[in-house]
From TrEMBL:
One matching Pfam family: Ubiquitin_2
Biased composition annotated in UniProt, kind: Basic and acidic residues: 884-894
Position of the signal peptide: none
Extent of Low complexity compositional bias: 897-913
Record GO terms (molecular function): cysteine-type deubiquitinase activity
Biological process per Gene Ontology, one example term: protein deubiquitination
Protein name: Ubiquitin carboxyl-terminal hydrolase 47
Biased composition (Acidic residues): 951-964
Domain USP as annotated: residue spans: 160-533
Polar residues biased stretches: 402-421, 815-832, 840-850
Record region (Disordered): 106-140, 393-421, 815-850, 863-967
Amino acid sequence: MVLLELLPFFDSQIQNAAEEPRVLCIIQDTTSAKTVNERLTLNLPASTTLSKLHEDVAHKAGYVNDTFDLTWAPLEHNSEMSLSDSGFEPGKKNFLQLTDKDGEQPRVVSVTDSSGLDDSSQERFIGPLQRDGSACGSGDYSSPSYSYSSILSKSDTGYVGLVNQAMTCYLNSLLQTLYMTPEFRNALYNWEFEESEEDPVTSIPYQLQRLFVLLQTSKKRAIETTDVTRSFGWDSSEAWQQHDVQELCRVMFDALEQKWKQTEQADLINQLYQGKLKDYVRCLECGYESWRIDTYLDIPLVIRPFGASQAYGSVEEALQAFIQPETLDGPNQYFCERCKKKCDARKGLRFLHLPYLLTLQLKRFDFDYTTMHRIKLNDRMVFPEELDMSPFIDVEDEKSPQTESCTDSGAENEGSCHSDQMSNDFSTDDCVDEGICLDSTSSTERALKPKSLLTFELFSVMVHSGSAAGGHYYAYIKSFSDGQWYSFNDQHVSKITQDDIRKTYGGSSGSRGYYSSAFASSTNAYMLIYRLKDLSRNTKFLAVEDFPEHIKSLVQKEKESEEQEKRQREIERNTCKIKLFCMHPVKMMVESKLEVHKDRTLREATEMAYKLMELEGAVSLDCCRLVKYDEFHEYLERSYEGEEDTPMGLLLGGVKSSYMFDLLLETRRPEQVFQPYKPGEVMVKVFIVDLKTETITPPVSVRAYLNQTVTEFKQLIAQATGLSAETMRVVLERCYNDLRLLYVPNKTLKAEGFFRSNKVFVESSELADHQVVFTDSLLWKLLDRHGNTIRLFVLLPEQSPGALTNRTVCQKNLSLQQQGSSTSDSQKSPDTSDFEHIESPTQEAHSNSSLCVAADNRGLENRIRATPGSSGGASSDTENPFVCEERSDSEVNNDRSTSSVDSDILSSSHSSDTLCNADSGPIQLANGLDSHSITSSRRSKAHEGKKETWDTAEEDSGTDSEYDDNGKSKAEAQYLYFRAEPFSQDEASWETQKCLVVHVDKRITLAAFKQKLEPYVGVVSSQFKVFRVYANNQEFESVRLNETLSSFSDDNKITIRLGRALKKGEYRVKVYQLMVNEPEPCKFLVDTVFAKGMTVRQSKEELLPQLKEQCKLDLSVDRYFRLRKKTWKNPGTVFLDYHIYEEDISISSNWEVFLEVLNDPEKMKSMSQLAVLTRRWSPATMKLGPFQEVILESSSVDELKEKLSEVSEVPLENVEFAKGRGTFPCDISVLEIHQDLDWNPKVSTLNVWPLYICDDGAVVFYRDSREEPLELSEDERNELMKKESSRLLKTGHRVSYSPRKEKALKIYLDGGPVRDPGQD
C-alpha cells in the first residue's frame, strides 16, 4: 500500500527531471597533469550545485576533488548555488577551463582514492539520459564508433599512444604492433648503436629503439613519430601520403635488414617472419613432379575469388583455397619431361616451413575492370583467436617417388604468393629458423606431430576503416603480459572486448566504423598477426631493471629530455605573449612580440622590450616606458605610473592566448617629461593650419575626456599650442574625408563624434575667412585638397618621342615637409632635374588663381605650402619606391610599348598650346560641379547621382571618348590639383627608369589625368594608354575616361604605354587561332581593335595586315577563314561576314575571338544553322578519329545522326552518339569513353537535357554500334593506361580513372631522396 502511494511521487519526480532544462558544460583541461589539452563534456541539470559540478568534473577527469580550479566566472568550490543561478545558460555551450590550483597540478585519482567514493558517485551518469532509460553504460568501452568519451588515460592502460602527423595512421598501427611483439622488441633493445659509425638522425634502428623506450617509459599520453620518419628520409609531404600497411611492413623490414648487416640482428626478420613453401607441378600420368621453393614474409589471402560473387567465409577457407591445386588440362596441359609429351597435371602450393610470427594479409583491395576503379571488398571473413595450421599440410599429396629438385628460393613465384627477394641464398635444408620446418621429417612423423606445435594465437589485428580511395588504420593488439586486448588508435589507447574484435570481421553485421557517415560498414580487419604457441620459445618483455646498459643510458637521456621539455612547457604556460610596438628614432614604427614571464615586473619587462627594440645608443633606458596601446585606433589607453614593481601577469590580466590590446614602448627626449595617460581619456592629434602661409604643421597630441565641452576642449588646445581660444576654429575629421566644424560651445566631445583616437585641425586668426560659410571658406578648401590628394608612381615608356627639354610643361608647385621639419620656407633641392627648370607661359597665371596643395596620406602628416611662380622641390620621400623593371614586348597582357595597331600615331608633333590648356576659372570637378557647390559631407555629395562602373562594357557598350562631337578634348575644361616630378634616388637611376611621382587630386577624371601627363609622355593623351599595376605586377588597362581616380590610393603604380587609346565605340580584342586537330588547339595571334557598327568582313580586312606582319600568316578575305566567339577555351558562335558588331554581335572590353582557317568554303550561311564538331570513336581499334565539322539546319537529333552517317558511311540505324564533357577538346581516355559517356540519349532535339547543344562549337563523339571493344590483356591494358595518362596530363585534362596520384612508398637508407635540380 505504501509503495502504491509513492508511485505518483516517483512519476512526478521523473517527469520533472525530464522537463528540467540542462546545462552543457565544455571543460578544457589545461592542467600540468596532461601533456595534451583534453576536452570534457558534461550535460547537467540546471539545478546542479557548483559543489556537485566540481565533484562531477573530478570524477570525469580522474582527479582528486579540491586539487584543481575551474575558471569561467569565479566559482566557489563548496557553493550550493545552482548552475542556473550562477549565470550558466541552459541549452547553450558554457566553456570552462580546468587549471592548476595554487601552481600545483591536480592529484590523479588512485585505487585508494577511488575506493573511498561511495557507489552512487562512481555509478552516477553524467550527461543526457540514454534512450533506453538506463542511467549507466553497458561497459567501459564505447566501441569503434570512437566517441572517445570512455578512453582511458595512460595511468589506467599503462600504454602510450602515437601522434598522427597527418595521414600516418598506417605507420602508427605497425609500430605499435612491433612494439607489442616481445621477440622483436627485445632483439631491438639488444642491438647497440655506435654513434661513431652512423648519424643517429638517419639510423632507423636507433630511432625505433628510442621510440620503443619512450613507449615503455614515457609519462606522456602520446609521443611523436617525426624522428622515426625523418630517419626514413621522409619530409613533411610524406605525412600527407597514406600508404598500405602491408607495403610499409615489407619496405621497413627490407630497410632494417640492410641496416643490420654484419650484426647479431642480421637474420632477425627471417627468424621471426619468414616461411617457405613449395611451388610444384605433378604429372597425373607418371607422377613426375617438378618444384621449386619460395620464401614468404606474409600470406596473401583472397577475400573473393576472381569472377565470383560469394566471398570466402573464414580465414581457414581462404587458406585452403590458397593451397588448393588446380588441374592443367586441355590447352593448358603441362609438358612432362619424363613422358616427353603434354599431359594433364596438377599445379599448386604446399607449406614447407611456417614462421614463428605468421602474418596473414586479407586482400580487401581489388581492381574493378568494369568501372576501371580500385575498390574495397567489405565482405565478412571470420578469423579464429587460435589458428591450427595442421589441416593445411597435405600429407597424402607428399607421396611422390620421383621428383625433380629445384631449390631456387629467390625465383619469382608464378602463383599468388609473394616471394622474398632478400633470400636468394636460402636452401631446402636450412632448418635454423625459429619456425617449424616440415620438410626434414617423414610424412609419418609429421602426421604424428602434436597439434599444439602447429597452433598459432592471434595477437594483432590491423583494422582499416574507409574505402579504396582512403581511410583510417588502427590496431587491436593483445598484451602478452596480461592477455588483455587494447585498441591502439593513434594517440588514444583503450581496452576492448572480444565483441569489438568480432566487429572487424566485415560484412553488413559489422560495425559502421570510424567514418560512420562517409564509409558505412567499411570497418574490417586487413592484416592478422599470429604467434606460434610454444612455451619453450615464447618470451616475455624485458623489464626496465633488465635493460642492457646502453638502453638504461638511453632511458635516462630520454627522461632528462622529457623533464626539460616539461619545464619548458611550464615556462611557456606562464609566459605572456603580446604585440609590442615602438616609435624607433631611426626605423620609425617597429613591431615585434614581447614574451615575458607572468611573474616578471613591469620594470624588468621594460628592460626586455628596450633590448628587443634595439634602442641601445639611440635612447637611454630611463627615457622609455611601456604603455597600454590600441594599434587599430592608434590609441594610447593608459600608462602605468607607480606600478613598476607589479607583475606583468597582474597588469595584463593573466596569461592568455591573445590579448585585446597591445603594448607600446614609448620614448622621450631627456628634457621631456612623460605625460600620464588615464583610463577613459581619448587621444586627439591636433594639426595647426596657417591660412597666411597656407601650411599645416605636424600634429600635437592632446588627451581629453568625452564629457568635455567644445569650449573646454578649445582651452585645452590653447594651453598646448599657445593659440587664442576666442578666435579658434576646430574641425574634426570624423572619418576619411568627412569634416565637421565644432561651433556649438556647450556640446560635448562625445556628442560631436569623438572616439578613442581622433584627428582635428585648428586655425586661430582674425582674417575675414571666419565670416564665410565654412564650406566656402579658404580653410575648408585647404583641408579638402589635403584629404583628396594622393601620390602615384608612374612608369613612362622606354622611348618617348621628342626631347623633354623642348616641351612646355604646365606644372603646379607643392612643397612637402615631413613631420619634424622646420616651418620656414624650404630651399630647392640640389638633386632637381630638368623638369624643375622648365618654364610655362601660363604657369604664373595658374599659380596666382589656384591653390596648389597636396598631402602624403601614408600616416605622416605633411606641411603644405604654395609658392606662386616658383618651382617645387623634388620629393625627398623615397619610401615604397616604384620598381621600374624592363619588360619585354610580350609580357603583360601581350601589350607592347608601341603596338601594331598604333604604329601610325607617332608621326605628328604637338605644340605647347595643345599640351598646356588649363582653365583659370573655378576648379571643375568630375561630376560637373565646381568647388563652391561642395558641402561638408564631400564624399556623398561629390558622388551623388553618379553610378559606380567598372572597366567593362557600359550601357551603350562603348568605351568613353576623350573627345566630344566637335573633336575638342573634354579634359580641357576640367582642372584639379596635379603635380609631377621625377622620382629616383639619383640622376643615373632616373635616366634609365623614367619614373614620375605624381601628386594629384583623386577626383580628377582619367581623361584629365592623361592630359596632365602629356608633357611627360611626349604625345597627346589619345595616343597613349594607362595601365594600373596590381599585385604580382599584373597590369590592366584603365579605359573609363569619364571615371575619377577615386579607386586609386597612395603609392599605387601606373604604367604608360604608347599606342592609340580607344575612342567611343571601340573595343580592344585579342585574337587567337583555333586549330581543332592540333595538340595545342588555341594559339594567341594579335591584339586589335574592333568598332561599333563595323561588319565582320571589315574587321577581317583590318586584321589581315597585322596577321601578315606579326604572325607571318598570309591570308586574304577571299581565302577560307572565319571568326568565331571564344569562351575561355571553347569555340562558340560562328560570325558571318555580314554581321555587324553591337547589332548582331554583342561585344565588350577585353574581348576574345577565335580565327579559324578552313579547308573548304564556308558552309555557315545563316544564324539559324548549327555547327557541331564531331569525332569518331572506334572501339575495335581503341582509337579516336580527327574532328569533323557538320552543319545542321535544325536542332533535330535525327538530322545529326543522318549527317554522322554521311561523313562516316555507318548505317543510320547503327550510329550512336554522346556529347563530350568539359572544355574543348573534351579529351577523355579511350579506356573510359565506351562506358563513361551517356551514349544515345533518349531525346529528339539537341537543346534539351542531357545534351543542351544550343550554340556552335559543341563536341559530339559517335561510334558504330556493331563494333565490339577490343579485348586487352592485363599487360596491354596497363600499358595503354600509362599512355593515356601521359597524353591527358599533357593536355591538362583530368584522368578520371586515377582520382589521386599515389606516391610510391620508399624508405631511404642514405637519409633522403636525390632530388632533380630542375624539378619543381
